[in-house]
Amino acid sequence: VRGGECLDMLQAMNTGHDGSISTVHANSPRDAIARLETLVLMAGMDIPLRAIREQLASAVNLVVHITRMRDGSRRVTHITEVQGMEGDIVTLQDAFVFDYSAGMDANGRFLGKPVPTGVRPRFTERFAELGIEISPAVFGASLIGVAPARGR
């Protein structure tokens, strides 16, 4: 989405029917949420910011952030769950983040990949209700000594 039509998108996403996907240009998962807020405001409706954030927190479950790297490749750098609201803030929790520490190959391409933060996303509960089982090991939950990443 690129403009005020974001308001229509949010309303459609919050009608009780599961399943939506969209793209937005942003520099991080947190910026993606802020960008969606701004785009809703571009619709010209007099909607309180808190109401917009509540709609976003209800409609958006997951942000998959793809970054264009210095080597020109595009890589998934964050898979971030939207967990809800705390006060006036939309809360986010990274489930996977790109491991830049893997370095680069001889051609200057990043070797890293998204790695689990050790936090099992809440959406896995909904998946279980639908009969989709995901091992906690996928999220690094079974790893000893892995400190969970902090929400933003």
From TrEMBL:
<dbReference type="GO" id="GO:0016887">
    <property type="term" value="F:ATP hydrolysis activity"/>
</dbReference>
<feature type="domain" description="Bacterial type II secretion system protein E">
    <location>
        <begin position="1"/>
        <end position="73"/>
    </location>
</feature>
<dbReference type="InterPro" id="IPR001482">
    <property type="entry name" value="T2SS/T4SS_dom"/>
</dbReference>
<dbReference type="Pfam" id="PF00437">
    <property type="entry name" value="T2SSE"/>
</dbReference>
<comment type="similarity">
    <text>Belongs to the GSP E family.</text>
</comment>
<dbReference type="InterPro" id="IPR027417">
    <property type="entry name" value="P-loop_NTPase"/>
</dbReference>
<protein>
    <submittedName>
        <fullName>Putative type II secretion system protein</fullName>
    </submittedName>
</protein>
<dbReference type="InterPro" id="IPR050921">
    <property type="entry name" value="T4SS_GSP_E_ATPase"/>
</dbReference>
